Amino acid sequence: MCLLLIPWMTIWIAVAINDTFGASAGIIAAAAVSILQLFFRPVSYEYISIAAVAGLSPAMLLGADARIVLPASYAAFGLMWCASAFMKIPLTACYSAGHYGGEKAFDNLLFLRTNRILTAAWGLLYIVTPIWTYPLLGTDLSAYTGLINSVCPILMGVFTVWFQKWYPARFAAGGS
After folding, report:
1. Is the pTM of this model over 0.85?
2. 114-136, pLDDT tens digit by residue?
3. Helix 44-61 crosses helix 19-36 at what angle (to 10 degrees)?
């Protein structure tokens, strides 16, 4: 999951501090993840992330307004998650399968259903993030946008840990 997050987090934090630095850092992060993939087994979402960040970053260097590009990057990230919720293997399943028997987990419908719900929830979080990011970038707090936008994912992470235990147990007990 780190390979997926590195390019996104780089632009979210660095662009909020300085457009040019952030855009350059985004390009470097996308290139670094491309190289790191030589040492790890990449999944399709990492390729999508590299392409998206490598496309958004030069746009800012060419004059696109970071106040538009940064919220758009959150929306793009969220759309990737939401779209994957409709795929055979949702995004979160790709990264959590190792804890549930590797690729054998993909044959477990409850594992896939749990991950589909979590993937959609994460996607929705990032789709709504631009709602407060855009106005925030127009304030004195704009340099802290990355930090402020980290609060909800931390809370969602806590929810994820709880949900991935609760939902299968509820389902096994006869709930739906």
Report:
1. yes
2. 999 999 999 999 999 999 999 99
3. 150
